[in-house]
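Exercise 7.
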Amino acid sequence: MLRNNYPPAISSWSDNYTFIQYQVAPRELEDIIQDLPGVDSVVVVGVPDEEYQELAKAFVIKQPGSSLTEDDVIKVVQGNPIEV
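Solution. The predicted structure, written as tokens, is:
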């Protein structure tokens, strides 16, 4: 079923991604981003990176009429470091 013309985000692609030698749970970042006003749904996945092995990439669906920006998401993630 489509929601706002997008398929629903069911779950993260994998349980963890590897940043340098650390296992990071995408769910931790998803929880931080989901708490932002204007976020409808979010999923975080690890994407390949030559220097760090993998980096987090967030796919965010905004609520209709939301003024949420990419910068808003980046600021909240940078302000809430997760333990690795």
